[in-house]
Amino acid sequence: MFPCMVLLALLCRRLNCDMRNYKTAGWCLVVAALTVSAQADRWMAGDFHQHTFYTDGSDSFDFVMEKNIEFGLDWWANSEHGGRYNRNGIGRHWDDSDVYACTPMLGDITSTDGHQNMWRWQSLRDFVWPDILRWRQNHPDKVIFHGVEWNVPAHEHCSVAIVDSRGTALSAFEYIFDHNDYDTSRDGEETEFGRLRKVNGRRYEEIDGVKVLTDLDMRSQHGDAVAACAWMQKQYDEGKIENGWIIWAHVERAGPWDPASGKRGYNIEHFRDFNNAAPDICFGFEGIPGHQAAIARGNYGDLSAGGGTYGGAGIYSAAVGGLWDALLGEGRRWFNFANSDHHAHHSKGGSSFYPGEYLKTWVYTTDEDSDGAYGLNEVADALRGGNSWSVMGDLIHMLEFSATQGEAEARMGGELHATRRRDVSLSITFAGPKTSGSGATRTVDHIDLIGGEITGKAQPGTPAYTTPTNASTRILATFTSNDWNSVGGVNVVEIHVPADRDMYYRLRGTDRPPNTAHETDALGNPLADSEAINLGLDRDAEAWADLWFYSNPIFVYVKQETD
Fold first, then answer.
1. Mind listing the pLDDT tens digit for each residue in 384-412?
2. Mean pLDDT, the chain, whole residue set
3. Do 387 and 501 sit in the same domain of this protein?
4. Are residues 3 and 126 in the same domain?
5. Is 113 exposed, middle or buried (0-12, 13-18, 19+ CB in 10 A)?
């Protein structure tokens, strides 16, 4: 629940109280105190992309779980690679006879570095799942998801999580669709999700008793990726899984998708395909990637789309009028998230921060069943709903963004149906800063209000479907401390915009003023992080040199006038 001062700010804004008039504001505080006891919603911080010894992480499963708690996370997912790996969650090999009297591996036999691998469909089901149940039982106040980082046919990686009662759905998904899982031992197995067969971008043949694998062409592989999205949407629609998501990871890192050169990145048409096939499952991407303490921030090298990150964000999100804005301009519910992608901490020679140490994704979660707790389905629904925002270095620890006209209101992820020629009020309430992980007190310098027109969905086969820009998007206003009212560390700013066309609005904020050398341009946009070399910074120092936050959008639709 919100602190009283946050509730005071929100209610004063809603009730048109002058926060500088403390007599009037006092009445708001009374209302706020009453609201606290009835509050059934809360903001929850989380991370859904992190690795352990189970795959290519450098820490035990339990150690990483503890770090989630240490750095203030309320929810998270263990989402690490599909395929096959040779270690368990404490870093011992699966074929270590001191640990296992009999080797537990099932399926086709493969080895890495002289040790037999376990296919991830098995470790997810038989080992990770019990670990997650153990942590859920020991920490009932935390929401812990069963996830996998999917090796996507024709593309790079993707964070996947499924909510079910037995942990079998994620195992089936990984077996069927992961490009790096070429075990065939379960083919034909009847499950509650249908008969299993490989749909992972490969052709499987047996020639003279030897299994031969051949990659399909890139477009056919992409078709298998779309089929995976449709499969999960079907399981969700039919109630065979309770919930789930497919959220695309570090989407610029591999560069633009190009079948001719074999580049397995993502172009905008792929996100449109995925969202069309599974609108309740494929609803966003990691616009702010993990590995923020890498030599090249985000592990985004010169060949990534955009040539690197910009203020820690990928170009698809950082560029005003770029790919994300093109999706929002269609009215797509396509949301932006941040994750740690923790493998190895920078203090141990790695490129990561711990989960929650530097990046957090905050979601507004509703107690849907009124049981006084917040569970897996409630957090998953909150992510899908889009009332969420992402932040670096705890620059802010609270953000409310809403649009109102009369009694109608919408918040992030929602839509407002407005009457033409009556202004819409956009309100921003934020709290911060806290002392950052760098040990310094950071202050928000400015917040950009970014908006663009909504023109409807592009249709497959048209030029618009492959167009990754939105020419109507621009910075509509920039707010500084001169523009917001502050009481008790809570800041409020409001702007009125005309309701003359369908629009979406989103926010971006930073601690760096415009024209900061090698960090921001004259408009306050982030510059390429590769310029940090001119500041003598790299790795974690570069990450702390500029902090940003991004909100998800509000959609405003203008009603047509009638006689």
1. 999 999 999 999 999 999 999 999 999 99
2. 92
3. no
4. no
5. exposed
Do 335 and 417 fall within a single domain?
no
**Both tokens assigned to 275:** 């969202």
The CA angle 555-309-509, to the nearest 5 degrees, is: 45
Whether residue 427 is found in the same domain as residue 316:
no
Find the domain containing 425 and state its range. 407-511+547-563
- For residue 293, the domain's CATH number is 3.20.20.140
Distance CA 353, CA 350 (A): 9
Count the Cβ atoms, other than its own, within 10 Å of residue 368. Answer: 14
Query: Rounded CA gap, 219 and 258, in Å?
Result: 10
Q: CA–CA separation, 232 vs 209, rounded Å?
A: 34
Side chain identity, residue 518: H
Angle, in degrees to the nearest 10, between helices 218-237 and 268-277: 30
Where does residue 148 rank: exposed (0-12), middle (13-18), buried (19+ CB within 10 A)?
A: buried
Residue 262 domain flag: yes
Q: In angstroms, what CA-CA distances link 422 with 403, 417, 493, 500?
A: 13, 12, 20, 8
Amino acid at the residue 349:
G
pLDDT digits (tens, 9 = 90+) for 276-308: 999 999 999 999 999 999 999 999 999 999 999
123 and 231: one domain?
yes
* 398-405, strands of its sheet edge to edge: 408-411, 398-405, 424-431, 490-497, 485-487
The total of structural domains in the chain comes to: 3
Q: Look at the chain and count its residues.
A: 563
Kindly report which listed range (235-239, 260-264, 463-467, 470-474) carries the lowest average pLDDT score: 260-264
Instruction: Return the axis-axis angle of helices 168-177 and 218-237, rounded to nearest 10°.
Output: 160
Nearest to 244 by CA among 74, 379, 42: 379
Identify whether 447 is part of a domain.
yes
- Same domain as 49, residue 27: no
The gap between the terminal CA atoms of the chain, to the nearest Å, is 45
| Residue finishing a domain among 349, 368, 392 | 392
**Is 209 part of any domain?**
yes
Alpha-carbon gap, residue 453 to 289, rounded angstroms: 27
Report if residue 541 sits inside a domain. Answer: no
